[in-house]
Design brief:
Blueprint: E1 15-18, E2 21-24, E3 30-32, H1 40-43, E4 60-62, E5 66-67, E6 74-75, E7 80-81, E8 85-86, E9 93-97, E10 100-104, E11 109-111
Antiparallel strand pairs: 1-2, 2-3, 4-7, 4-11, 5-6, 8-9, 9-10
Amino acid sequence: MTQTPACPQCGMENTYQYSGNVVCADCGHEWPVSESAVTEEDTSIIRDSNGNILADGDSVVLIKDLKVKGSSITLKMGTKVKSIRLVDGDHEVDCKTDMGQFMLKACFLKKA
């Protein structure tokens, strides 16, 4: 069974092949199968929701309300987070806000 790549637009892994294209079931983005071959160098690049490349120390803004699992805290849309740190793993961004320290997915952030 072949593994389909993650969506380049939203970063989610819920993708499938259809008529020579790869389709993201979450955001509906489609791209040709030939573009889905990504080199090792490209996988280390972390992009925000608009496709801008993120780096350590950047400031970002949340694009939607995020509920924190296991607590009653909700991070509100428009919250600015300064001095992010990029990490490997499921959640690419490590940051500190007034509410505490969190790990976030880059698909819910945009560069400020």
